[in-house]
Each structure stands twice: as structure tokens, then as C-alpha cells.
Here is the input.
Amino acid sequence: MKYNIIRNEKYDFLGQSYSSSYPNLHKYPATMLPQIGSAILKELNISKGTLLDPYCGSGSSFTSALECGITQMYGFDINPLAILISKVKFTKIPLKILLQTKVNLRDEIYEFVKDETNLNKLAKPNITNIDFWFSKEVIQNLNIIKHFIYQIHDENLQRFFLIPFSETVRECSFTRNSEFKLYKMKPDDILNFNPDVFGIYFKRLNDTLSIYSRFYYPKLSDNVKVDVQYSKFQPTKDEFDIVLTSPPYGDSRTTVAYGQFSTLSNEWTGIDYARKIDGMLMGGIKSKYLLSKGLISDSIAAIYKEDNNRALEVSSFYNDLAASIVKVAQTVKIGGKIIYIVGNRIVKNVQLPTDQFIAEKFEENGFKHLITYERALSSKAMPSKNSPSNKTGITVNTMLFEYIVVCEKTTDIINK
Ligand SMILES: C[S@@+](CC[C@H](N)C(=O)[O-])C[C@H]1O[C@@H](n2cnc3c(N)ncnc32)[C@H](O)[C@@H]1O
Here is the structure.
């Protein structure tokens, strides 16, 4: 091990969940506990400057940063659902307007459904295999809600009302809600499944309003700017003082299927490439070559002995992560810091030292490694066991710890 790891129990936050400090506005896989981000920023005495999260998901790093006084933030993610959640959390909308819009929406829907001849007037939405995932009644009612949300002209307001809509889509579909991947319920469960779409939507809307008004709105002073976009991180003319992020742990297909989790929501909100997202995320396209240099190469060689294909898939993830780190590194100011929170997954019984890889790549790009803390993983919403050897019945704990990697920029590689 080249970069020293320090076990730090302070960062375990044992027994704490996401909702212990800041409930999320919408379910999202593999979220980062905002408490971790705030604690490390405080430890590093960072309370101002511009922050970047290149894989921002539902925006937990922004929550952490806001808690510490940082007000200027930029985020990127390829998943449109992630960007929807992040945007809504950090866009200030007067509560009075939200409440009035809720009343208007409810009245409009109520008037519309009173007249049965209206029910067939709306065009059927363009969702892949729609009848496989939703009953006829659910499709009709979701379509009505969607129609009236899209009548809201103000984009920020419209996005706010799409958050409970997206949750309702998932809850009223035939997907097994306990899974991130798209699995259909068993036939018996489908027979007993008759969700009240309007009731669920307005209950979800009330929850969204309550969480937003208690936890997010009060922090959104006029100088807070959170600018997020759905794309890969593109170096901009902005320079960052701090990068705080939790990147994916591996490709979506074999770790966390962010795209699949979001497919129905993304399709219902008009994203036509929803089904392609997992392939667009890090490691989504299989590499032709093995990664044979650096600290990760021995582990990849060990996987290769067991399974050539898996070794190529793993190589592709680390190649993408390395390319992304090069871009991120360029845009950090000298003296600026990066904080990456990662897990070291196991593939074919080989543990991949992602924390070491990240420290190494930043050191190759003008940074100096400062600290790596190890924290026990207790409450991350992701599977802690899988079958990395692909042998039925043999499961291995894929990750019991997470690593908080901190590096500081010392040199501008381009100007060297
Ligand atoms: C661990 S999650 C981030 C979770 C986030 N910290 C939160 O608490 O919600 C990783 C994110 O990386 C995104 N992602 C994967 N590959 C990406 C890429 N090449 N560019 C941008 N985002 C990517 C995924 O869509 C996912 O939202």
C-alpha cells in the first residue's frame, strides 16, 4: 500500500442515516451521508470558495458544503433524474407560491377527472413496454398528473412538482420497489396491487413540501448558487477551490444500476435515451485493453487469471475514472483540495484498491496526497453482499469500509 490509510471512527456515523440530518427529497441509490462531507470540510477548515462535484447524484455534497458556509457550487451527472433532484433541492421558490400551485394543480385535476369524456383526450405517453410496467388505470392517472404539471410555465416550479411525480411513477409501477434494478412483481402481487395514483401523488407532494421547507429552503440565502447540468464533467473556465464527491464504485451493470433505477422516471419526464444511461456511465463501454500500469494493475491481472472479460470491464471503469480525474485536476486551483469518498469493491474475490488509484492519479496530475481515512460502512443504501465469484450461494461482503481520500493541488501540470 503506497498511500497510508488511517482508520477513523469519527467518520463511521454509526446508526445514523441520511434522514438523521437532511432527508433526501427523492430516493436515489448509493447516496453519500451529508454528515461525512460536512465533517471532513470542517476538519480541513474549508468554509468558503467554489466547489465542484463531477458526479453529483442527488446532491449530497452540496448539502454538506452549504452546512459549512460554502455558497458557490457546480455539479455534473449523466443521469437526468439525479440532476432533477439536485436542482430542486437547491432552487429557492417562495413557499407561498408552492402551496398556491399545489391547490391549483389539485383543482385542475379534480375538474378534469369529473368529466369522463376527458379521460381519453390525452395522448398515451411514450414509455418502453408501458403495459408491462403499468396497469391501464395507472397509466391514465399518471398521464393526467403529468399533463397538468407540464402546464406550469415556470421551469423551477414545474421541476418541483415533478419530484413527487417521479416517486409516484415508481411506486405505482409493477416494479419491486425494494430493488434498484427493474424487476417485475410476482403475478400474485400484481393481482393485489391497485395503487391510488392521485392519493399517492398528493401525499408525496406534501412530503416533498415538508422536507423542502424544513431542511432546504431555510439554507437557500440569496447568494447561494448551485449550478448543475446533465452531462459528463466538462472543464470550464471556472476554477475550483474544492472538489467533494462520491464517484461510482464500478460500472453500473455490475455495481449500482443508476440508469435502471431511474428509467421509468426518466422516460415519464421525456428523456428518450433513458434506457441507454447505464451504458453511458463510467465503465459502460468495455475496454479492448487491460489496464496494465500503476497501483491497480496487479489486482486487474489477478482478475484476468480468473476471467478475461471481467478484467476488461474493470479496466474500462478505471480508464474512465482516470480520464475524468485528469480533467478534474486541471480545473482545481493551486492550494485547492479534492475529497473523494469511495469503496474498494471486490471482483472475483480480488479487492480493488480504488482509494490508492485515486490518490495515485491525482499525484500524477499535480496533487499531493494528504490523508486517507477508513470509515465503517453502515447505512449506505446499496447491496453489501453479492456473488463476485458468480457461484450461486457464495456471497462475499463486497465492501465493509469506505475511504475518504484527500489530496491538495501543488503544481499546475499544464504550465510546468
Ligand atoms: C455514488 S453516486 C453519487 C451519489 C451522490 N453523492 C448522492 O449522494 O446522491 C455516483 C453518480 O455518478 C454518476 N456517474 C457515473 N458515471 C458518470 C460520468 N461519467 N459522468 C458524470 N456522472 C457519472 C451516476 O449517475 C451517479 O449518480
